[in-house]
Design goal:
alpha+beta, Alpha-Beta Plaits, 8 strands, four-stranded antiparallel beta sheet, 181 residues
Length: 181
Amino acid sequence: MKALGLLEFCEITRGLVASDSMLKSAPVELITATSVCPGKFIVLITGEVGAVKSALKTGKDAFKEGVIDELLIPNPDESLISALWGTADVNMEKQSLGLIETFSVASAIKAADAAAKGANVVVAEIKLARGMGGKCVVVILGEVSAVKTAVENGVRAVEEGLLVSHAVISNVNQKLLREWI
């Protein structure tokens, strides 16, 4: 069974060192390792559940005092991985747009997974805390009723205090949609 794992660090340099240790310690695949606003570092990995758990433990052990947040999702929705890699197969014609904005990377990924698993939608993209003051935005597409359900499910998955806002736009303007994702 596949899993998705994330560590968020308070420092870029030691976060990168911890990420290197993680990738050397277990057979996992790197999705991203990058600095995010404001001056933090995230590493996002995928692989078998045991390998991801092991790599997360190695990363936490390498920089215990620097871990801000962590996440392990066993059996994530398939669309989640492609949304994180930016390779989601998206039909933009006559779609409704759902948005969930959060204060943390982990909460955005949790929201995206809950949204995708609870409705017939596509998680088109997860914008991860770059150029947005540390906030993240989950971008969901589909029929309006399914998008509403997905957004409701995603919002419920976000921990209290970490939700910025959410919205559903019925039949979103195509030029705006293409510009945004």
